[in-house]
Amino acid sequence: MACANTVAALQRDFIHFDSSISGLNGCVYASGATGNIVTEDIVHGFEEMAVFNGVELAQIIAFAKEVQRILDKTNNNGSCMFGTQP
């Protein structure tokens, strides 16, 4: 749902989006919530839609993997699991 909401907002000229590296973090109001939209996935989606975002997808994926390694957490978001190709 977060991806669909992001695209809908983009279509209405929103340009700022809240996301989280590797989907880490959560919501203090929703127990068990996994966090915001995954940064790597939104960047990948924007690239697929030819939306310039100024973020280098390969670098953000590498950074997300490093964060996962440091925190000893694995998140199965699409971009980190499958790389930059859908």
Report what the structure shows.
The chain has one domain. α2 runs antiparallel to α3. By secondary structure, the chain is mainly α. It has a two-stranded parallel ribbon.
Q: Note the gap between the termini.
A: 18 Å
What is the molecular shape? flat
Structurally, how many domains make up the residues?
A: 1
How many DSSP-defined strands?
Answer: 2
The low-pLDDT segments are: none
Gyration radius, in Å: 13 Å
Mean pLDDT: 81
> What profile does the largest beta sheet have?
2 strands, parallel
Helix and strand succession?
HEEHHH
What proportion of the residues is helical, as a percent range? 40-55%
**Which strands sit side by side, in order, in the main sheet?**
1-2
What is the SS-derived class? mainly alpha
By DSSP (H or I, 4+ residues per run), the number of helices equals 4
How big a fraction of the residues is strand? under 5%
Distinctive features:
two-stranded parallel sheet, 86 residues, mainly alpha
Topology record:
Blueprint: H1 2-11, E1 19-20, E2 37-38, H2 39-48, H3 57-71, H4 78-82
Parallel strand pairs: 1-2
